[in-house]
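Memo to structure team: turn this sequence into structure tokens by end of day. - J.P.
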Amino acid sequence: MSTRSFSCGVPEQEDGWRIAAVRGNFKRAKFKFTKGILLENTPTSDSKNMAMLVWVLTIFFGFIPPLIFFLIKKDDEYVLDHAKEALNWSITLIMAYMVSFLLILIVIGIFLVFALGIVNLVFCIMGAVAASSGKPFRVPLTLRLIK
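Reply from structure team:
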């Protein structure tokens, strides 16, 4: 597959990127084209590795790594998307931990703390696997505070 053989009326830039209209916004994105058909948005291996790093670091350091990547990597749409999702998940998890700490007064909170830790580990691993394979990932039951 080659990005050079496609002609869509939008000139290809020197570095192989095209300006693409995505939901009415014009963004620089690298796409795979075959016989003039758009196949998918192709993140680079560096983007995949950084997005995976966001999820792995979220396991150990909470909301800080996604926040750093969200503030620094504004130019890479793929990393930014995974950083937003990891940050939304971290904020949701912090709120759930606060509720479970309040519920420790009635014994159920102790079990919720352990359950939240396991759920955090599972969702972060799922996010890291999806990021390394180049797929978008949405954590279920997450408050989408950062869009």
